[in-house]
């Protein structure tokens, strides 16, 4: 019964939360890649700044944490109708995403400026920052809508 309830909560809100669900991919994907390729940062100069800031394993746990927070927020969203703080949790997940993806973007930018990395990574990772900013805005809009209904 609980599985069905969670399924319905996710399925009912999926179309309007698709950009938040999409942001699971880079978080879980990077975690998985760093599990199977723990020397990835040494293979590309674009990761040189990130490698100076933390190890691949540390970054893997950061990405996993980001993905798990997002998954929890989206699973809670809509599944428990009386829970008024669902949009707050989604907003926190998006703010965490902004923080992490902005650091990755900055790392790629610094690597590119120092002459070793590619600028294309800055474009890709900063696109995720913009998407997370949009997700944060939508979540806080939902906070306001829920407050107005009460």
Task: Describe the protein's architecture and organization.
This protein is mainly alpha-helical and 150 residues long. It has one domain (2-149). Helices cover 82% and strands 0% of the residues.
* Arithmetic mean of pLDDT: 90
Structurally, how many domains make up the residues? 1
Distance between the termini: 29 Å
Uncertain parts: none
The helix content is: over 70%
Largest sheet: none
Principal-axis shape: elongated
Radius of gyration: 17 Å
As a percent range, the share of strand residues is under 5%
**Number of beta strands:** 0
Number of helices: 7
Please write the string of helix (H) and strand (E) elements: HHHHHHH
Helix/strand-derived category reads mainly alpha
Concise synopsis of the structure shown:
The chain has 150 residues and is mainly α.
Descriptive labels:
150 residues, 7 helices, 82% helix
């Amino acid at each position: 019964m609980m599985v069905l309830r969670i399924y319905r909560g996710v399925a009912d809100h999926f179309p309007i939360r698709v950009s938040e669900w999409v942001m699971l991919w880079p978080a879980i994907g990077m975690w998985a890649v760093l599990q199977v390729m723990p020397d990835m940062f040494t293979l590309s100069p674009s990761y040189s700044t990130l490698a100076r800031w933390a190890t691949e394993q540390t970054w893997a746990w950061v990405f996993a944490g980001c993905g798990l927070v997002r998954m929890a927020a989206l699973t809670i969203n809509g599944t428990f109708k009386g829970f008024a703080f669902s949009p707050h949790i989604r907003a926190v997940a998006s703010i965490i995403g902004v923080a992490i993806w902005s650091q990755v973007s900055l790392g790629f930018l610094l690597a590119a400026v120092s002459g070793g990395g590619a600028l294309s990574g800055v474009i890709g990772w900063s696109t995720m920052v913009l998407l997370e900013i949009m997700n944060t805005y939508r979540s806080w809009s939902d906070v306001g809508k829920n407050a107005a209904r009460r």
